[in-house]
Amino acid sequence: MQAVIAVLPGDGIGPEVVAEGVKVLQAVAARFGHTFTLREGLIGGCAIDATGEPLPAETVALCRASDAILLGAVGGPKWDDPQARVRPEQGLLGIRKALGLFANLRPVTVHPRLIGASPLRPERLQGVDLIVVRELTGGIYFGEKRRERGPDGEWASDLCLYTEAEVVRVVRVAGQLARRRRGKLTLVDKANVLETSRLWRSITTRLVREEFADLEFETMLVDACAMHLIRRPTDFDVIVTENMFGDILTDEASMLAGSMGMLPSASLAEGRLGLYEPIHGSAPDIAGQGKANPLATILSVAMLLRHSLDLPEEAACVEAAVATVIDRGIVTADIATPGQVIATTTAVGDAVAAVIAG
């Protein structure tokens, strides 16, 4: 296979973890006889420094001309002023909107060797295997924002807006995914308070009845879900929810796996185009020190191979290599057990690539 992959290293630890993801892509290409053409672009703070904008038009064009996108992370203290005209996060929101990346898939599994890295009791983590499907281009993050001064002082508002079409298309992705997994779909909302959540619930309930009647289906309020993710995480299979709820719940769920450094994600458009990134941020406090865990990025590469390039065997090979490296104890500090030798970012990537190469 020949494929063009856009590589957006971003800020902070982004370039470090993306370098290990690229290393793994090259190992896969060599083992399976593929040709991956990698083309680098700017996004986030580094793009602001170079061009004045967090998402240059050249980056959007590069991504549109590619089969898939690998992203590191954006942001850092240098660009943290919330009053600034341009901010790194605008690049992230902008690329999602520009490419129509409406469905964000965030799988959460727990490697047996890493159970001790989680703050939860071990018995609650055995068999955790869930995936959150988060709507990514609508809701409060993209709604109209206002901030003004009135007779009672300053006031602000953020509009949370969803259309039926936006809900239907992401629920269809979640339903099809649940059908390929264990057949259970959980809608998370706040329908006792929010009108947008009541829209989500009515549309999802109807769609499940009409198209996914074979699935086990439940609805759950977001606050209850936040509790049950910790109390009984093995009960979940596929969770579908709106943009902000999905953002918060998946950060919480990262503690099941022991570290944000273990969780990959895929942001999918209609068709096969997708953007793949770890769920963690740019972690500027450890940038350049070789401490960043590259496994979430490497597992994002596996998702890229599976969803955008339709290479399931290669994806499984990467996932198996990650499991092997963890079993061998070649891990960064965030998932190391007391007394364990700590590996660098590069050493972990080298180890995964070596396993793939055989």
UniProtKB/TrEMBL annotation:
<dbReference type="InterPro" id="IPR024084">
    <property type="entry name" value="IsoPropMal-DH-like_dom"/>
</dbReference>
<keyword id="KW-0028">Amino-acid biosynthesis</keyword>
<dbReference type="Pfam" id="PF00180">
    <property type="entry name" value="Iso_dh"/>
</dbReference>
<feature type="binding site">
    <location>
        <begin position="76"/>
        <end position="89"/>
    </location>
    <ligand>
        <name>NAD(+)</name>
    </ligand>
</feature>
<dbReference type="GO" id="GO:0051287">
    <property type="term" value="F:NAD binding"/>
</dbReference>
<feature type="binding site">
    <location>
        <begin position="281"/>
        <end position="293"/>
    </location>
    <ligand>
        <name>NAD(+)</name>
    </ligand>
</feature>
<feature type="site" description="Important for catalysis">
    <location>
        <position position="190"/>
    </location>
</feature>
<feature type="binding site">
    <location>
        <position position="223"/>
    </location>
    <ligand>
        <name>substrate</name>
    </ligand>
</feature>
<dbReference type="InterPro" id="IPR019818">
    <property type="entry name" value="IsoCit/isopropylmalate_DH_CS"/>
</dbReference>
<keyword id="KW-0560">Oxidoreductase</keyword>
<keyword id="KW-0432">Leucine biosynthesis</keyword>
<feature type="binding site">
    <location>
        <position position="247"/>
    </location>
    <ligand>
        <name>Mg(2+)</name>
    </ligand>
</feature>
<protein>
    <recommendedName>
        <fullName>3-isopropylmalate dehydrogenase</fullName>
        <ecNumber>1.1.1.85</ecNumber>
    </recommendedName>
</protein>
<feature type="binding site">
    <location>
        <position position="223"/>
    </location>
    <ligand>
        <name>Mg(2+)</name>
    </ligand>
</feature>
<feature type="domain" description="Isopropylmalate dehydrogenase-like">
    <location>
        <begin position="4"/>
        <end position="352"/>
    </location>
</feature>
<dbReference type="GO" id="GO:0003862">
    <property type="term" value="F:3-isopropylmalate dehydrogenase activity"/>
</dbReference>
<comment type="pathway">
    <text>Amino-acid biosynthesis; L-leucine biosynthesis; L-leucine from 3-methyl-2-oxobutanoate: step 3/4.</text>
</comment>
<feature type="binding site">
    <location>
        <position position="251"/>
    </location>
    <ligand>
        <name>Mg(2+)</name>
    </ligand>
</feature>
<comment type="function">
    <text>Catalyzes the oxidation of 3-carboxy-2-hydroxy-4-methylpentanoate (3-isopropylmalate) to 3-carboxy-4-methyl-2-oxopentanoate. The product decarboxylates to 4-methyl-2 oxopentanoate.</text>
</comment>
<keyword id="KW-0520">NAD</keyword>
<comment type="subunit">
    <text>Homodimer.</text>
</comment>
<feature type="binding site">
    <location>
        <position position="134"/>
    </location>
    <ligand>
        <name>substrate</name>
    </ligand>
</feature>
<keyword id="KW-0479">Metal-binding</keyword>
<dbReference type="GO" id="GO:0009098">
    <property type="term" value="P:L-leucine biosynthetic process"/>
</dbReference>
<dbReference type="GO" id="GO:0000287">
    <property type="term" value="F:magnesium ion binding"/>
</dbReference>
<feature type="site" description="Important for catalysis">
    <location>
        <position position="141"/>
    </location>
</feature>
<keyword id="KW-0464">Manganese</keyword>
<keyword id="KW-0100">Branched-chain amino acid biosynthesis</keyword>
<dbReference type="InterPro" id="IPR004429">
    <property type="entry name" value="Isopropylmalate_DH"/>
</dbReference>
<keyword id="KW-0963">Cytoplasm</keyword>
<feature type="binding site">
    <location>
        <position position="96"/>
    </location>
    <ligand>
        <name>substrate</name>
    </ligand>
</feature>
<feature type="binding site">
    <location>
        <position position="106"/>
    </location>
    <ligand>
        <name>substrate</name>
    </ligand>
</feature>
<comment type="similarity">
    <text>Belongs to the isocitrate and isopropylmalate dehydrogenases family. LeuB type 1 subfamily.</text>
</comment>
<dbReference type="GO" id="GO:0005829">
    <property type="term" value="C:cytosol"/>
</dbReference>
<keyword id="KW-0460">Magnesium</keyword>
